[in-house]
């Protein structure tokens, strides 16, 4: 073999080894994007710091290797490891957050149940007086559908159906009222403003009404005494042109039956 032929062969082998992996740049960019998201998430940093560190270390190694010819395969490998650590960090965080939310909800329900048991210790005379005060304090309106109590959107975070802790005192009054009036039933109706799509609003309105119903059931009210309806952005009480009007339209209404259990007609 001539020196020229040998030189050409050696050059071709070196160039082949130096060729970059076609997917290395894409893999590195995606890994960097994923790492940036978990690095900026305070919950992820609190719950899964070790996985975030591993993701950063793998990404840094992939980045260093990207400057070397012929390291495309290694770049893809370490970029993949970085992405997996980022994904594990997110999954671990979501699991822990769900557990924390469940524990918080359970603790709040136990507190409400304790308050309910304490209220039951009142004498019959005290209960009668308490009932009169609670009926007077409930923000209710007599309509052709019956006695209606309106819960404003301050009891929910924007776009969410989970009841805020500030709703508990109001819900507790409703529970006690229904326990002292065992023949009464309620229809819980959810409403939204006009923001969002029709189906989205219908689902959100029903989910909010169901959230109130779920708490009533958790605190001992028979679910057979509860009806749930969602009307979306139908039946606004104010125009949706202003934030004040939209806030008034985002509501849950509780319709009480008469003392014989007869509810007025639904909408």
TrEMBL record:
It comes from the Bacteria. Residues 1-16 form the signal peptide. Its main location: membrane. It is found in: Cell outer membrane. Pfam families: DUF4398, OmpA. Residues 95-122 form a coiled coil. Keywords: Coiled coil, Membrane, Signal. This is OmpA family protein. It comes from Pseudomonas brenneri.
């Amino acid at each position: 073999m001539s020196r020229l032929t040998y030189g050409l062969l050696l050059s071709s082998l070196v160039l082949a080894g130096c060729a970059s992996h076609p997917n290395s740049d894409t893999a590195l960019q995606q890994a960097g994007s994923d790492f940036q998201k978990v690095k900026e998430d305070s919950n992820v940093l609190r719950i899964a710091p070790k996985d975030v560190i591993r993701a950063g270390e793998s990404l840094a190694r992939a980045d260093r290797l990207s400057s070397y010819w012929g390291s495309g395969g290694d770049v893809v490998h370490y970029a993949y490891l970085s992405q997996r650590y980022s994904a594990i960090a997110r999954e671990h965080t979501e699991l822990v957050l769900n557990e924390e939310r469940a524990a918080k909800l359970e603790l709040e329900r136990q507190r409400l149940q304790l308050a309910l048991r304490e209220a039951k210790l009142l004498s019959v005379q005290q209960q009668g007086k308490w009932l009169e005060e609670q009926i007077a304090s409930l923000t209710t309106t007599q309509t052709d559908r019956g006695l209606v109590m309106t819960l404003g959107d301050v009891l929910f975070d924007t776009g969410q159906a989970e009841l805020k802790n500030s709703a508990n005192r109001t819900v507790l009054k409703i529970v006690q009222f229904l326990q002292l009036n065992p023949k009464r039933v309620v229809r819980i109706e959810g409403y939204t403003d006009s923001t969002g799509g029709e189906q989205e609003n219908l689902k959100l309105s029903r989910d909010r009404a169901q959230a109130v119903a779920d708490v009533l059931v958790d605190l001992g009210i028979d679910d057979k005494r509860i009806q749930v309806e969602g009307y979306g952005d139908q039946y606004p009480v104010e125009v949706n042109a202003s934030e004040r009007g939209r806030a008034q339209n985002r509501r849950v209404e509780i319709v009480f039956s008469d003392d014989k259990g007869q509810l007025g007609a639904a909408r």
